[in-house]
Write a structure and sequence with these properties.
The chain contains 4 helices and 6 strands. By secondary structure, it is α+β, with helices and mostly antiparallel strands.
């Protein structure tokens, strides 16, 4: 299903993830939240949408407004995998200028491979949009 690149670019810049996944990528509504405790800090992961058992989650920023560092993000991902095996986690800062999209490729007999894609609101986001094209669903 071809996506409207200009609309997707606008939704990314505006941090409108539900509209992005549901209206543009063809995912389904999902309203679950997950509390994850890492190193005595609590993170709330709010579901954005789901499709075929895959859930897109939005992670709250740290109390200082920043995105957790890579080591903490990996711990969040591993903890989340205990509740939701297949998922994408979107980390955002409180100023709504930066996003980090994280997903893990799991293959039998192989170690998990963590993939991350940073996006800054001043960028066009073409490489992220290309990746999102691959997870878009038609009717």
């Amino acid at each position: 299903m071809p996506i409207d690149t200009n609309k997707v670019r606008r939704l990314l810049k505006e941090f409108k993830f539900k509209c992005l996944f549901i209206d543009e990528l063809g995912w389904n509504r999902c309203n679950n939240s997950y509390d994850v405790s890492i190193d005595s800090r609590n993170f709330i992961l709010q579901s954005v949408a789901e499709k075929h058992g895959m859930i897109a989650l939005l992670c709250s920023p740290l109390s200082n407004g920043n995105i957790p560092d890579y080591a903490v993000r990996r711990k969040i991902e591993r903890q989340t995998a205990k509740s939701v095996h297949e998922h994408i986690i979107i980390y955002t800062d409180a100023n709504r200028t930066t996003q980090i999209w994280q997903w893990v490729k799991r293959e039998a007999g192989k170690p998990t491979a963590c993939r991350e894609h940073p996006y800054h609101s001043n960028q066009p986001g073409d490489s992220l949009i290309q990746k999102l094209q691959e997870i878009a669903f038609g009717l």
